[in-house]
Design a protein that fits this description.
Elements: E1 6-8, H1 17-22, E2 29-36, H2 39-50, H3 61-74, E3 80-86, H4 90-103, E4 106-111, H5 116-121, H6 131-142, E5 147-153, H7 161-170, E6 175-179, H8 186-193, E7 197-201, H9 207-216, E8 220-223, H10 233-244
Parallel strand pairs: 1-2, 1-8, 2-3, 3-4, 4-5, 5-6, 6-7, 7-8
Helix pairs in contact: 3-4, 4-6, 7-8, 9-10
Length: about 250
């Protein structure tokens, strides 16, 4: 799916094309976004802005996606772009998938965010407990997008993450991007239960954390907030650790 096996995890209101290009020397992929695509998701994002969180709220979110993916390509960067999206309805997912197809970009469905404003409209981690709707999004995305990832969170009450992974695999997902929280072993359970490309996220900071996730069976790791650090020290450490723990080539 991408090489080297280090990705940048989306950071709402911060993860744009400039951010992706800045890490191209270290990472193999960058998930821009998240981007709220439909009106309920955008209304929720506006409420997040009102309480001083960062969000992308362009006038035309789909045009913004296209522009950002174009900007990554224009820089001749080796990094593969992805776009993390939030939506409560299917049609914007279909449209975003078509844009991804134009850029060989990964479409990542956000089943991760836990802010109450997003959960109230059915975005983010609410999809983990509504696997029928999540599966519908994946099915539509997989019809067009070159690759489909689902960003998920461990330790959500009442959610069997392995069952979620199995369901999205059967409906066309290629990857699962797991925020392991404090349950690193979930990476191993998902990897053993599916053939999904497993991206492990949470506290990836150094050789020890990379080695732990590799031993659990992760296909790649991702870094979130430290990707914004001006000195890039964490990114360099993680990139070196990924190089020292090579994985089997991507099928």
């Amino acid at each position: 799916m991408f090489e080297p096996r280090l990705a940048l995890a989306s950071l709402s209101g911060e993860a744009d094309a400039d951010w992706a290009r800045a890490a191209a020397d270290h990472a193999g992929a960058a998930f821009l976004g998240g981007i709220a695509l439909d009106e309920p998701a955008r209304d929720a994002a506006e409420k997040l802005l009102a309480r001083d969180r960062k969000e992308f709220l362009p006038a035309d979110p789909l045009a913004f996606v296209d522009d950002q993916l174009t900007a990554v390509a224009a820089a001749d960067a080796s990094i593969r772009p992805g776009i993390n999206i939030r939506s409560t309805t299917v049609e914007p997912v279909r449209q975003a998938a078509a844009i991804c197809a134009d850029h060989d970009a990964i479409l990542e469905i956000n089943a991760h965010c836990r802010q109450p404003e997003l959960r109230a409209v059915g975005c983010g981690e609410t999809l983990l407990a509504d696997t029928d709707r999540l599966a519908e999004f994946v099915t539509v995305a997989a019809e067009t997008a070159p690759a489909v990832s689902v960003k998920v969170r461990a330790e959500v009450d009442g959610v069997d993450l392995v069952a979620v992974a199995e369901r999205i695999e059967t409906t066309g997902a290629d990857a699962i991007h797991v925020d392991a929280m404090d349950s690193e072993a979930i990476i191993g359970r998902v990897a053993n239960a599916t053939d999904l490309f497993v991206i492990a996220n949470n506290e990836v900071r150094d050789a020890e954390s990379v080695r732990e996730y590799v031993e659990f069976g992760a296909d790649a790791v991702s870094v979130g907030r430290p990707s914004r650090e001006p000195d890039g020290a964490v990114m360099r450490r993680v990139a070196a650790a990924v190089a020292d723990h090579p994985l089997e080539p991507t099928p």
